[in-house]
User: Which sequence fits this backbone?
């Protein structure tokens, strides 16, 4: 249940509308501001990413959407078979078509709005990044009422990694929406046990999460850890129905994937090839490796203030801070799995931590201003606005001033190669 005194004031609604408007504007697809785009006249106000070419992964999604457009959804087993044939002949891994939901949503977008396949992928990524912004606002409001909701909405609106994923035709921002939806729905089910509406929504969200990406297993493990630790931390009530729903949702997703792939053997073979060949992919070996703390280093480079404040919040945790403990355990449990995936570390995969990290960071700010008796809300507002300005500046430096993907694939690969080379 939301905190007491959670009824919004008029000023809260006005501020929230402004935050959402700015966040949505920053997430509009870059081609909206091109010379032929509808918003070209205000293109100077939008931070257009320097890297605008089709990336390799984007090209794979484009191929899969084009195949759906030409052959229809009933041809999906054939698409999976063609992937298996192609993957067997390649030395490294390519994206599997079993990331069905993103591909299918782009196909539906194409059917509804007539967008070309690649444009549909761009627009779906941007749209779901906007939905994520709305989702985290509702989630924060349910956890801690209006002040927290406004702060988390603002911090997410200007989060560099959120904006970045909205500007490219990749699945990770799309996946973040479903991961955070599952995290929120688990909280609601713990707080309102045996409410069939929350249970059904939770099952559907877990099913769609599995249909989105194969590493949904990381999210599921974190959710299970939250359910287990509830015994001691008492976030809410774990019922038999909730335990069944936590297993039933992913199973439904797997069943749908089996039908889409054309059988259990075909689906297993596709996954096996994708994972196995990833260990032989040169770019994965050079850029997906690193120590367990690599994600911390990446986050420190992209969002230093947020990470420092979030880490500080961990030292202030106690059993009374249920939402903060909930977010901390979700990050810790998923981090423990993700940092142990060989050649599989990438900051894009950590996109789902953006909201929990900012929730913890704002908790630190609240603790810092707690001794101040007068103008506490003003101080919090100034702090949040300042952090948003820093975050937007970080995005501008990383993605607008420099072509982020080129820096990653060229300079970072060279740097890692040098670090791995033996000393003279």
Assistant:
């Amino acid at each position: 249940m939301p905190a007491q005194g959670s009824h919004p004031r008029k000023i809260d609604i006005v501020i929230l509308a402004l935050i959402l408007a700015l966040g949505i504007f920053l997430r509009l697809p870059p081609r909206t501001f091109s010379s032929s785009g509808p918003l070209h006249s205000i293109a100077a106000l939008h931070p257009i990413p320097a890297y605008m070419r089709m990336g390799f992964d984007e090209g794979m999604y484009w191929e899969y959407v084009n195949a759906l457009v030409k052959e229809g959804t009933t041809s999906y087993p054939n698409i999976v078979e063609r992937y298996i044939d192609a993957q067997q002949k390649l030395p490294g891994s390519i994206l599997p078509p079993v990331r069905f939901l993103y591909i299918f949503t782009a196909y539906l977008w194409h059917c509804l709005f007539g967008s070309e396949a690649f444009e549909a992928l761009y627009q779906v990524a941007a749209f779901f990044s906007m939905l994520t912004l709305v989702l985290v606002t509702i989630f924060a409001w349910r956890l801690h009422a209006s002040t927290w909701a406004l702060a988390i909405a603002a911090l997410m609106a200007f989060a560099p990694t959120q904006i970045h994923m909205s500007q490219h035709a990749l699945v990770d921002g799309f996946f973040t929406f479903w991961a955070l939806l599952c995290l929120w729905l688990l909280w609601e089910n713990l707080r309102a046990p045996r409410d069939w509406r929350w249970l059904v929504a939770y099952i559907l969200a877990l099913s769609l999460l599995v249909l989105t990406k194969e590493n949904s297993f990381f999210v599921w493990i974190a959710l299970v850890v939250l359910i287990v630790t509830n015994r001691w931390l008492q976030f809410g009530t774990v019922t038999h129905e909730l335990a069944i729903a936590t297993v039933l949702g992913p199973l439904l997703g797997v069943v749908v994937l089996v039908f889409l792939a054309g059988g259990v053997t075909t689906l297993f073979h596709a996954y096996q090839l994708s994972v196995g060949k990833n260990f032989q992919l040169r770019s994965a070996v050079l850029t997906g490796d690193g120590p367990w703390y690599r994600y911390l280093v990446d986050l420190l480079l992209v969002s230093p203030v947020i990470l420092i404040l979030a880490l500080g919040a961990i030292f202030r945790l106690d059993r009374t801070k249920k939402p903060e403990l909930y977010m901390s355990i979700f990050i810790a449990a998923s981090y423990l799995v993700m940092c142990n995936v060989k050649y599989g570390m990438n900051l894009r995969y950590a996109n789902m931590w953006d909201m929990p990290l900012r929730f913890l960071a704002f908790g630190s700010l609240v603790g810092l201003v707690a001794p101040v008796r007068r103008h506490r809300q003003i101080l919090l507002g100034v702090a949040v606005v300042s952090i948003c300005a820093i975050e937007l500046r970080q995005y501008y430096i990383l993605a607008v001033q420099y072509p982020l993907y080129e820096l990653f694939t060229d300079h970072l690969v060279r740097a890692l190669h040098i670090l791995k080379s033996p000393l003279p």
